[in-house]
UniProtKB/TrEMBL annotation:
GO terms for molecular function: DNA binding. Gene3D superfamilies: 3.30.450.180, lambda repressor-like DNA-binding domains. Residues 21-75 form the HTH cro/C1-type domain. This is Xre family transcriptional regulator. It comes from Undibacterium pigrum.
Amino acid sequence: MSHLISVTDKAAADTSVGTLIREWRTQRKLSQMELALDIDISPRHLSFVETGRSKPSAELLMNIASQLDVPLRARNTWLLAAGYAPRYSEQGLDTARMAQAKAAVQRLLDTHDPYPGVALDRHWNVVLHNRAAEKLMGLLPPELLTPEINIFRASLHPQGFAAYTKNFSEWGSYLLQVLQRLMLSGRDEDIVALVEEVHAYPNVIALKQQTPLTQTTEPSLLIPCVMELYGQELSLFTTLTTFGSPRDITLHELCVELFYPADTQTEVFLKAMGG
C-alpha cells in the first residue's frame, strides 16, 4: 500500500521550519540575500520565514528546498514542521509498486556480471547485488554481514576488505571523504554514528596519522581499489548511478555502484571467475 512518511521524525516535532531552512542555507553557504534573490522573494520575507514571524506556503517551502538541493526525506520534514502534509511517499523496495524499479536495478546488476555491482540505500547498506559481488562478500567475517552489509564498514574495518586492500592509504582516504560528505549532506544520526565507529578502527586511526605522500609520478585518472585476492592483484574503479527523476524517497536515496576492471589482468581474471 502506498504511504507517506509518518510523523516520527524528532526534527519535525522539535524544530521550527524556519530553523530547518536556516540550517540548510548555512550548510549550503548562502546568505539570506543570495537565497532570496535565487527564489525571487525579498530578503525581508525570507528573514521573517526563518525567524517564524511569517508562515511560508507549501509551494514556497518546496521552492526553497529545490534551490538548496534538500533531499526528499528532509522536504517531508520541512512540510510537517510547517503544518502541511508530506508530499513524498516512501515505498519499501519489496512492495508491489516498486517491483518494476527493483527489477530494472537487478537487471542492470546482473548484466554487469562478472564485474561486481551493488545497489545501496542512503546509509550505503547493500540492498541488491550480483553474483560477482556476492563472491566478494563471502570474504567478509560474519560480524560484518549482519544486520546488513554496509560498504563503509565492510571496506574500512581491519578484518573486512581493508585486509585485502593493497592501496588502503589511497582507497581508505577516498572512502572517508565520501562518508564525511554524506554526513554533511544531511541530519542523519545513523551516519554520524557510522562516522564515529569507523574513525575508531585502528587502521583508520593510523591512516589519519599518516603524512600525505608527495606525488612523484603522473597521477592516475581515477583512484582504483587494488586488492590481493586468490593470489592475484586486482585493480577496480567504481561508478555511481542514481535514478533521474524520483518522486519516492526510497528511489531518491537508492544508488547503484558498479565496479570495473582498471587493467587487462583484472578483466581476464574476473571473466574467468565468472565463467
